[in-house]
Amino acid sequence: QVQLVESGGGLVQAGGSLRPSCATSGSIFESAIMGWYRQAPGKQRELVAKIAVHGSTNYLDSVKDRFTISRDNARNTVYLQMNSLKVEDTAIYYCNAVVIGYYSGRANPNYWGQGTQVTVSS
């Protein structure tokens, strides 16, 4: 059974840093594009950053130069280093995995974590 478990959110003042992590189980990590999404109250969920199997990355424009996504294939874990946090970064952050190819009878299955709250105060 595939599980994505986020941790490391919290409350921080503007300008501070957080480093949420997402641990995966179910033998998908080495074949998955891993991503972090966020959803603020009243807004649609948006992609913050993603990292491919071999390490190439993409970022939302508003977080470039502040956030860094990384993956540890030995620990089946993806991280999001968030620096210079702003009040507008406040949201629930969700981990996402998209498996490349077939897994468990499905093509490119998509998995989500339960989310971790990030709150940035002014």
Report on this model:
The chain has no helices and 13 strands. It has 122 residues and is mainly β. The strands form 3 sheets. Strands 2, 4, 5, 6, 9, 12 and 13 form a 7-stranded mixed sheet that branches. The chain has a 4-stranded antiparallel sheet with strand order 1-3-8-7, with no helix packed on it. Strands 10-11 form a two-stranded antiparallel ribbon. Strand 7 (67-72) and strand 8 form a beta hairpin. It starts with a strand and ends with a strand. The mean pLDDT is 96.
Quick gist of this model?
The chain has 122 residues and is mainly beta. It is built from no helices and 13 strands. The model has no long low-confidence stretch (mean pLDDT 96).
SSE map:
Layout: E1 3-7, E2 10-13, E3 21-25, E4 32-39, E5 46-51, E6 57-59, E7 67-72, E8 77-82, E9 91-99, E10 102-103, E11 106-107, E12 110-112, E13 116-121
Parallel strand pairs: 2-13
Antiparallel strand pairs: 1-3, 3-8, 4-5, 4-9, 5-6, 7-8, 9-12, 9-13, 10-11
Task: Describe the structure using short key phrases.
single chain; 122 residues; mainly beta; 7-stranded mixed β-sheet; 4-stranded antiparallel β-sheet; 53% strand; elongated
